[in-house]
Amino acid sequence: MHAVLITFTSSASLDDLKGPFTDYANAQRGVTGLVAKTWIQDGSTLGGFHIFTSPQAAEDYLNSRMFADLRSNPAFSDFQIRHFNVLDELSAITGSPQAARA
Description:
Strand order of the largest sheet: 2-3-1-4
Distance between the termini: 7 Å
Radius of gyration: 14 Å
Helix content: 40-55%
Order of helices and strands: EHEEHHEHH
Structural class: alpha+beta
Mean pLDDT: 93
Oligomer: single chain
CATH class: Alpha Beta
Shape: globular
CATH architecture: 2-Layer Sandwich
CATH topology: Alpha-Beta Plaits
């Protein structure tokens, strides 16, 4: 498994983003190799913690039209992307369902 933390600053409110983010979440259900996403927020910083089946699946998503459209939204800025290897054996011990499936 491979994890990607994506954060960005939003000038739009969560209330304004509820509809578009719901549509985006539903579209992400079809992303090949995306196992799970946890949506995160801290003030105007938004983003997600993504679990992919492999580093290549993560790169495919990051190079996709879907992600390009997100990055081009004028309400979003300061994108930060960090990649992590998932320690599957330890994660399974602490109850990570994604790691347990690996």
